[in-house]
Write the structure tokens for this entry.
Amino acid sequence: MYVEFDESLVTGNKEIDNQHKEWIDKINKLVQCCENGGGKIEAIKMLEYMADYTEFHFGAEEKLQEEVDYPGIKEHQQKHAEFKKAVEELHDMLEEEEGPTEAFVNAINKNVIDWLYNHIKTFDCSVATYINMKSHPELV
């Protein structure tokens, strides 16, 4: 299953939306590697590449939330920590296997793709709404 950036994932923050598109591209490359018979080393490299971008992206989101005094930042950081742990578990799973298995791809779908859709549509969109409300109090 591939991730597709569509209107339901638009937060309205151009920087974050562009990062989400880049992040999705990295996730899709990992899935493609697994589905096209990429070996263990290649899959590990793709997973690490995605994990590095995840760190960058979460850092940018959390910095933005700090700048605007977002009241839900602690919960948001907790969700980010949960995702990082899931990525670590995927890495461990891949290390234990001969290569990317069907179970590994299923775990990507559940722990990365499903998580991503839910997180952007709920947590990230709520941050964008907060920023818009704070920037335009006359609209509230």
User: Anything to note?
Assistant: The mean pLDDT is 89. The CA atoms of residues 22 and 101 lie 25 Å apart. The chain has four helices and no strands.
